[in-house]
Amino acid sequence: MGTIVVSVVLIVIVACIIRKLVMDKKKGKSGCGCGCAECEMNCHKPTDAARR
Predict the structure, then answer these.
(1) Are 32 and 45 spatial neighbours (Cβ–Cβ below 8 Å)?
(2) In terms of Cα–Cα distance, which of 47, 46, 44 is closest to 36?
(3) What would the pLDDT profile of 1-52 be if each residue is shown by its tens digit?
């Protein structure tokens, strides 16, 4: 019985996390957790070739 309860709780938590990720994606939020202006990574910045 305990295994079933723990499994259900974990499934609910994972479903909530997935739902939040989908909602953030629809709102256009980045997955990295920082603003693009302060981003040290080049994952969101256009390259020189894309600007031309």
Answers:
(1) no
(2) 44
(3) 999 999 999 999 999 999 999 998 888 776 666 556 666 665 555 555 554 4
State both tokens at 31.
């997955």
Could you give the C-alpha distances from 5 to 10, 19, 35, in angstroms and in order? 9, 21, 39
Give the C-alpha separation, 8 to 2, whole Å: 10
Whole-angstrom distance, CA of residue 51 vs CA of residue 33: 25
For the entire predicted model, the pTM comes to 0.56
Instruction: Report d(CA 35, CA 24) in Å as an integer.
Output: 14
Beta carbons of 44 and 36 less than 8 angstroms apart: yes
